[in-house]
Each structure stands twice: as structure tokens, then as C-alpha cells.
Amino acid sequence: MEKIHITSSKIKDDILKYDKIDKIYIPLKDKNNNIYKKAVKKGDYVYKGSIVAINKEKDLSLHSTISGYIEDNDVKYISNGKECECIVISNDYKEKIEKNKIIRKKKDNYTKEDFIKDLKNNGIVGLGGSSFPTYIKYNTDNIKYLLINAVECEPFISCDKALIYNNSEEILEGIDRILEIMNIDKAIIVIKNTSTKYINMLNKYIGTYPNISIYTTDDIYPNGWERLVVKNTLGITYDKYPSEKGIIVSNVSTIYSIYEMLKSNKPLCERVITIYGNGIKKKCNVKVKIGSLASDIINNISEYKQIKDPLFIVGGPMMGNSLPSDDVVITPDVNCLMVISNIDSKVLPCIKCGKCIGVCPSNLSPVLIMNSINKTNDLKKLDVNKCIECGLCSYICPSKIEVREFVRSAKEKVNK
Amino acid sequence: MKFSIRKKTFVKSDNSTTNIMYNILIILVFFVIFATFKNGIYPTIKGYGNLYTVFKPLIYTSISSIVCLFTEYLYYLIRKNKKSLYYLFSYSYAIIPGVFLSLIISINTPIWLLILGSFIASLSKVIMGGFGKNKLNPALVGALFITVIFSSHIGGYLNEYEVDTISSATPLSNMTASSYVITYDNLVKPYGSLSNFFFGNIPGSIGETSSLLIIIAFIYLAYRKMIKIRIPISYIMTVTLISLIICLSKDIGLWFILFNILSGGLLFGAILMATDPVTTPISTKGQIIGGIILGTITMYIRYMTHLPEGVLISILILNILTIIINYITIKIYNKKTLRNIIVLLFILSIIPVSLIITNNINTKPLDDSFEVLSKVQKGNDTIYEVKGRGYAGNGSLKLKITFSNDKVSNIDIIKSNETYTKDIYNNDYLNKIINNQDNLDNLNTISGCTYTSKYLKEIVEKTKKDYNK
């Protein structure tokens, strides 16, 4: 496999804060197309962290991130570029938390079951981009390793790094607490070997935690993919979930939100996002309320710059989606907002150089998938569902063909 | 605020098709420079050339490039899909087949044939859908067309200055002509040593003889990741292995391996033509399979058939098989099965082919088989009937040679199995031999039937010896 390093420029490590918002929006559909049913009515008062919508089949729930009153539904964009109906909650700026949640048993007695229950009640989900409910992930036995994914391999995104820079002590403490509760022996923080500054920050405090170690991985895209994190660090491959082999992989932002939950009973209501691009005046990392609107954040924090033919991108430059409007709700999977000028390079015919086969981390043959796009039987043989849409095939293509879009539509065809 | 939507990755690598193609074009320019030196400047220094000879390779390249460019232009014009010359040059890379073609043909190709070949090459490309969709390597189609159909119009592969120093044509045609006698004296000696093969100072196509230049080009292209390196590597490995098996079983020196790799334009074909991305297998495993197929077919054609262009034909066969190889890689996507197929193909092709070749070649020089059938004295005349070796083998030429006053006065061909006997008559070659009988070494052979004329000279020379005894 050819190794691809994508150069990326750095932005400041400070985390700004933006939480003075009047309204938050909670979409009734997530990017994996799970549909939620509204559990509140207009005019209801909700607390920070209380459930506003549920999906019964998969036992998922959505939580309010502020306290306030429910208003009429509104339609906004979500991260996958689709429009979606949202619950609107107006902020009363009191940040009230339901009383029964604050009552916590003594620390000594805090068991794994309590932990799982708390994760569920506080709506903690994976902040790495999958939005996978954390309580399901941690509800497994015989875990040998906890891997903390701090690789953040997509270029230009730096929210996880900024979090490590500012909160390395808290993150380590959080990991230690999880190890204790879950009865896991070893935790490994996986981080790029080029981010020396952040490794040093962790090294400052890591001495007091003998169970936590740091593993450095090459600065190669997409080394932050869960499968590659496990494979590079432990040399283990798995079929569907890492828990089969006794491994839990959590993003460093998720760990931080678990820490906040354990320490101060905070439900998941904030996350750090990176705002970047040549169409942005102030590139920065900013901590925002989940459910706030991207347009509000950019107008108040970063401001737009006038550029030619701007694109609004939610997510990183490789895997992100281009959206027609900045009216986008920040959901837990959004880690980056970008405004860049569009450069359309001339698309030439495929020269069948096979570079896309060489770079595919899932060992697929994108060019063959593209050529047999109309033959569904062949597409099934080509394992299209293994595609993680990392975009390396489009990145590497010398003829500038958007190979990934072909693979995406192939996936849709096969799954139909 | 409103934005436009693009479905794509928003960062792109520096790779670009245009970049790859221009790099290959620039590399080809170096080959044209080499060709100018070998076929133009060097002969002129030796006193065989004039200003035209110096620029001949350059003129050939320019002509074929321009013909290719205009063929594409006219094709799109006729199809009512007019494209500008600039577009065809920059995005259809129209001149590349032309440059390739001008490098892989003989320096003695007449210009009208070059124009025809370039036209066919370019036409084969645009008819199949243009750049990116062609199934066969255009330059090779053009070269095959002119070398096979018009072979009698191409005057061999020798430069004028080489005709004197080297008695036979290219190393491989020399080997075919000498009934597959594999000895160092027969294959390498006439051309100096293997280092001449390496630096390119041997007869051959216009620009493909310098192995050194090709290896430099390979290192550059592989470093820039611009070619499918698996194909040339597995190709050369296969040829090496087959040669090695032949070496071991026939007790030939290991020079034979190098001879196979360095002669016949194999390196040029392997590194610059078999790696043409468009017409070769896509998947990595398919590329390895392709290399094995190329190696076996090349060796088979060289040592089992009389076809001159082993590399050219094998690459074209691979181009055709590419469709099947790509189809198989889709149908059998399982990596392990594919790997087993490679191993199986390797064993099933290399070993039988090496054994077959081993049976067909000789390691000792053949008997000359010169024989005096009768010698009759009639007054002042002595009439000889002699039999000797020709291009078609031992005893394929039977001559009646009359001596009067100690001089050859008449030569008749009684029997000939040669293909080009007609050319001997057409050129009045028998009379030329009589006129130059004291100085036969300086009599040029006929291009187009080099061997027959050469063997005729030999037989006359030997009869003279017999007479003078």
C-alpha cells in the first residue's frame, strides 16, 4: 500500500468559547439515517441533558444541551448535506440539570453498571465522527486494551490536538477513571509522531499513570481510521467491532466528555470544532454547544472573507460534505467547518494507472468499481461495502476523477 | 449565505495525467537525442553521412508526430466533433504514439512508410475511442503494420557504416538466421562485447538500443511513481528465469541471460511500452500476470519462430489479454485465488517454454555443409556444381559456377529454397559477384535479402578456394 502524507498547516492551540446562543436545534435524523421520534411537546420545559427524542429500535436517544422551552419545529441542514426537521429549544441561560441526575452514589461504590447507565443518560456519543453511542461500546466484558484515538489524520483539523494541548491533565485523569471503573489493565494513547508538542504536553503528566502509555503512529492518511489504529498499535485485525478482540477505541474528545460527566455531572453538550479555510478571517478552534448553528458561530467568532466561488464544507477536506448553505446544525459528528474557494481542475479520461488500487486502505479496486458501475453483480464481487469513503482514490487520481463518488453510488446500488 | 455544491475531496494530490505524459515525452526526447548521435552524428564522423543523415532521426520523429497529430485532428473533424490542435496536443497527447513509433522502427524505413505507419497508429487510437479508451498500444500497432506487411520495403536494421563492419543484421535476426546456434562467438562477438549492448552501440531500431539510457529512464519514472513498475520487473524476471533454465540445461554461459535482456529492444519495450498505463492490466496482481505472459511469449517468439519482433508482438498480445485479465480480476476478486493463479501460471508457462526452447537451440556451430557435387573440365572451362548453406538452412542453395581462364565467368542458381531469390535476380547480384570476384568482401549485401546474398558470396568464395587448390 502506498503511504500518503497530506501536508496541513497549523492554527493556534487556544480554544475559544461560544455558548451565548438563543436557540439550539436538534435534528430528528442523524447522518446514519436513524430516525428519532419527538418525545416532547411545544411549550415543555426541558433541562440540560434531558431526553427530547428517541429511536426505540436501536435504543438511541437525543438530549437537550441547554435548559429552556420547546418551540415549533424548524428545518435545517445536517452534516450529510440533507435537510432535516429539527426540534427547537429556546435558551433560558440557566443551564439547569435535572435534579435526580445530580444525586450520585459514593465514588467507591461506583460500578460499571452505574457507569454504563450514566453514559446513556447523559447522551455521550463518539465525537470522532461516527456518533456511535458510547454506552453500547463500553457495555462489553473482558476488555484488555483501551485505545485513545488522538491521531486526527485528516489535514487541517486540529480540534483534538487543541483539546490535548489545553486539557491533557484532565484527559489522563479521565482515562485513569475509566480504566478503574471498567477494570481494564492498559490504555494506549495513539497519536501522530509529528505532533511532538502535544506528546510533550501528555508526557508532563503521564508519569503518575503507570497504566497509560503513548504510541506514535506515522503521519499518514487515514491512520486515524479505527481499524488502522488497532492494526498499527497492537497488530490485531478484527471483523466488525474491535470489542471482539477485547479492545475499545475511543476518540480523545469522547474521553474528555466522559471525564466531564464523571467529574461534574455534565451531560454531553459541548464539543470543540475547527474553523478553517481561506474564506475565513479568523481560523480557530472553538468550543460550541451541540445544536448551535454554523452560521451563528462563523458570524460571531470567525467572520467570512470575500472569496471567489466559496464552498461551505462540513467535516474535513477529505471526507467532508459540501453544503449549499451555512444553515447547518452542529451535531456531535461535526469536527470541522471549512470555507474554501472552489478549484475545479480539468477532468481527463481514466488512464487506468491503478494508483487508486495502490492507496485504498480497504484494499478495494476503485477503478474496477468505476468501470463496472452498471453491473451490480460485479459490484458485489468487488466488496464495495468495505469502502470507508476516505477519499484517497479521488485525492490520488492523476486525471482528477472523483473516483469516490462512483464508489459511493456503487454502494447505494448494491445496498438497494 | 448561499454556497455552491461540489461532491469531491477538497484537497488533491500533485499527480496529474498531463504531468506523467509530459515527463514521458521529455524522456523520449532524450532517446531522440541518443538516436541522433547513434544514427546521425556517429556515421557522419565515420565519413558515411551528410547533413541529412545527422538530422534523420529528428526528421523521422517530427514527421511521425505531425502525422499523428493531424490524423487525430482530421478524424475529429470528420466525426463533426472538432477539437483544436492545442487540445489534442495537451489533453489527448496525440504526438506520443508518433514519437514512440519513430524510435522503434528501422533507420532505413522509407519516409512514405513512416507516414503510413504513423497514420495507422493514430487511427487505431482514435477509432477505439481516443486517449484513455484505446485497447492496443498505438505505436506498436503502427510498427507491426509496417514491419510485417512492408518488411521487404524496409532495408534491414543496419546503418550504412555498420554494413561494412558487421556482417549480419541485429543480434536476434542474426541468431534466427544462424539456425539458433547459441554461442558467444555467434551472438555477441560480431557486435563487440556485451558492453556494446549495454551502451547501445549495436544495430537495431532507431532509438531503443541503449540499455543504459532506458535504465536511467526507469529509475526516474519509478521514483516519480509514474509507471506500473510491476510489469517490467516481472517481465525481466521471467526472461531471466527462462534464460537461466536454458543456460543450466544446455551448459551455456550466464552471458546468455544478459544477451536476452539487452537485445531486441526488450528493455525499451518492457519499461516504456509495456508500462503504458492505458493498455495494460490495472490491478497489481494482474500486472504481475501480465509480466509473466510477456516474458514467456517473447522468449517463445525469439527461439521458436521466425518472427522478428518478439517484444513488439508480445506486448500487443498482452494488450489484447488485458481485457481478459481485468475481467478475471473482477470475477475472482479473492486475493488468495489470484495469488494461486499467478503461481500456477508461473510454473505452467516458464518450465514448458524453457524446455521447448532448450530442444530447439544448438550450442555448437552447424556444419557449413559446403559440398562440391561435380567438377567437369570442358576445354578451357571448368564447371562446378556446388551445394551450400543459405538462409533457409543447410544445402538450400545449389549453384553452377563456371571458371574460364581462372576467373569466374558464369554463375547459375540451379536450386534455391530461399524466399528472396527473386531479389538476387532483380539486383543483378550474380553479375555483381562476377565483376567483383577478386574483392568479394567489399561487395555490399542486398538489403532485404541480406542473408541470401551473403551466403551466395560465401559459396562462390569457397568454390574459388577449391578451384585454386
Topology at a glance:
The complex is a heterodimer of chains A (416) and B (469).
Chain A (H helix, E strand, L loop, with lengths): L14 E4 L4 E5 L9 E2 L6 E2 L4 E5 L4 E4 L4 E10 L5 E9 L7 H4 L9 H10 L12 H5 L6 E6 L8 H24 L3 E7 L3 H11 L5 E6 L8 H9 L12 E5 H13 L5 E7 L7 E6 L4 H9 L7 E5 L6 E3 L12 E6 L13 H5 L6 H6 L4 H6 L10 H5 L6 H13 L1
Parallel strand pairs in A: 1-14, 9-10, 9-12, 10-11, 13-17
Antiparallel strand pairs in A: 2-8, 3-5, 4-7, 5-6, 7-8, 13-14, 15-16, 15-17
Helix pairs in contact in A: 4-5, 4-7
Chain B lengths: L16 H30 L4 H28 L6 H7 L4 H9 L6 H17 L10 H12 L10 H6 L5 H7 L6 H4 L6 H6 L11 H13 L6 H21 L4 H8 L3 H8 L10 H21 L5 H22 L3 H26 L10 E8 L2 E10 L2 E12 L2 E10 L4 H6 L2 H7 L14 H19 L1
Antiparallel strand pairs in B: 1-2, 2-3, 3-4
What do you see in this structure?
The complex is a heterodimer of chains A (about 425) and B (about 475). Chain A has about 425 residues and is an alpha/beta fold. In chain A, about 30% of the residues lie in helices and about 20% in strands. In chain A, helix 4 runs parallel beside helix 5 and helix 4 packs across helix 7 (about 250-265). The mean pLDDT of chain A is about 90. Chain B is of the alpha+beta class. In chain B, helix 1 (about 15-45) runs parallel beside helix 4, helix 6 (about 140-150) packs across helix 16 and helix 15 (about 285-305) packs antiparallel against helix 16 (about 310-330). The model of chain B has no long low-confidence stretch (mean pLDDT about 85). At the A-B interface, strand 15, strand 17, helix 9, helix 10 and helix 12 of A face helix 1 and helix 16 of B.
